[in-house]
Amino acid sequence: MINPLDVFFWTIRKNEKDVINLYNSLSPIMQLATGGSMLNFGYWMENTIEPISAQENLCSYFGKLAELENAKNVVDVGSGLSAPAIFWRNNYEQLNLFCVNVNYDQLSFSGPQRNLEFLNSTSTKLPFSDSSVDRVLALESSQHFKPLKDFISESKRILKSDGILALALPVTLPGVSFVKLGILKFTWSSEHYGLEHVRETVTSGGFTITDEKLIGKNVYEPLANYYVEHRDELKKSILQKYPKYVEKILYTSILKMKNASEQKIIDYVVLKCRI
């Protein structure tokens, strides 16, 4: 049983141990709601009708942005349950993928995998030698990295001169008051980085942003619409493992994400960065 007080303090403090506890406690909700092991919001297109396809769309979109077809050694930082890395491995057979995650339980989830190596490490001290990898990926994970500048610095250090850093993360938009996030101040378990802060941190860390896309309209709104439409069946699954208040908070947060996206309070940015 989840202790609400524990969740409150994990969300407020948001140190690495707190993030681990949050994900270990709440990630199964995402798995129950989507039926899969990817922990991202997904990229919803006109013909996307369920979450797993949306999540695979996001992985595919991100892989193309990062030019994985031209890469060999790829580091996935904040790799979750390793499902995105397995997806990329299956679509780009030449890759050697290194899943870096501070959460050992998540690293252990998938079991041994061909061409995947699992490294229990923090995002701000990456266990690789200088100029040794072709890509650094952070798919919906860098919103937790702090300080973000240390992750950017480490990415620059380990990337080869022609390497690519690719990021995808939820952001707040310029001029937005923190108050306008409402319940997301607590349930959006991230650092609530602003778009301008992310841009500035990346460029001051020695990278040039060569591609930037804001895809929030293909993320938050269709995800919320899916949950509302299928709430009855999803609620039954969630209540098998969680108390009612957890599903209620999830539902309220999803509706707030949709509202905040429509009001241009939040967005979802995807960046390709070169040295």
Overview of the structural elements:
A seven-stranded mixed sheet has the order 3-2-1-4-5-7-6, sandwiched between helices. The chain is built from eleven helices and seven strands. Helix 5 (104-107) links the parallel strand 2 and strand 3 (116-120). The protein has a single domain (4-274), classed as 3-Layer(aba) Sandwich (Rossmann fold), CATH 3.40.50.150. By secondary structure, it is an alpha/beta fold. The longest helix has 19 residues, at 16-34.
Quick structural gist:
The protein is of the alpha/beta class and 275 residues long.
List the helices and strands and how they pair.
Blueprint: H1 4-13, H2 16-34, H3 51-65, E1 73-77, H4 83-91, E2 96-101, H5 104-107, E3 116-120, E4 133-139, H6 148-158, E5 159-172, H7 184-187, H8 195-204, E6 208-214, H9 220-229, H10 231-239, H11 244-262, E7 266-274
Parallel strand pairs: 1-2, 1-4, 2-3, 4-5
Antiparallel strand pairs: 5-7, 6-7
Helix pairs in contact: 1-2, 9-11
Average pLDDT value? 91
Low-confidence stretches: none
CATH architecture heading: 3-Layer(aba) Sandwich
Reading off the top of the CATH hierarchy, the class is best stated as Alpha Beta
Question: Can you count the helices?
Answer: 11
Structural class: alpha/beta
Strand content: 15-25%
Physical arrangement of strands within the biggest beta sheet: 3-2-1-4-5-7-6
Distance between the termini: 47 Å
- Total domain count: 1
Number of strands: 7
**How would you name the CATH homologous superfamily?**
Vaccinia Virus protein VP39
The dominant shape is globular
Biggest sheet layout: 7 strands, mixed
